[in-house]
């Protein structure tokens, strides 16, 4: 296994248990058996390392191909919702403590902006996909892609947070049936009217 992969694996383990606010680059470097300068050589800063962990070590929405006009829309959205549920289930403990520290939160927000990251990305990406589907006639003209994206992503975050709150950090994977129920509730009002028989 290469150095970068070792760093990512160690960072993912530590961030899951200690969170971004408590984990240190020194601790991550030690766990991955590299020096801190080596860690910074590969990732530049702690936030870039966090982004790499979120993108490469968590089952996230980037692993669902969004190809407007292709496949079954409800299935694609269910796949995406399931990926969001898994992503939030694993990332909430990594990021939660930041909310309690305004100074760290401001620094984190500025760093995420520099690296093109942040919690708005899922809504923006899904909104663009739904807009493209509406342009192809697969969603009703009256559908609001931005609102629909916010509703689906927000519902996934809420579900993951409530499960984490109720079950703690040893949370089991969230079943696909939960993603399917969220998607079905959202998508039916967005579909174009059926042609008359």
From TrEMBL:
Pfam family, any one: TetR_C_7
InterPro entries reported for this sequence: DNA-bd_HTH_TetR-type_CS, Homeodomain-like_sf, HTH-type_TetR-like_transc_reg, HTH_TetR, Tet_transcr_reg_TetR-rel_C_sf, TetR_C_Proteobacteria
GO MF annotation list: DNA-binding transcription factor activity; transcription cis-regulatory region binding
DNA-binding region: 24-43
Origin: domain of life: Bacteria
Database matches in Gene3D superfamilies: Tetracycline Repressor, domain 2 (1.10.357.10)
Keywords of the record: DNA-binding, Transcription, Transcription regulation
UniProt keyword Ribonucleoprotein, yes or no: no
Domain HTH tetR-type: 1-61
Xref: SUPFAM superfamilies: Homeodomain-like, Tetracyclin repressor-like, C-terminal domain
Protein name: TetR family transcriptional regulator
Organism: Actinocorallia herbida
Organism classification: Bacteria, Bacillati, Actinomycetota, Actinomycetes, Streptosporangiales
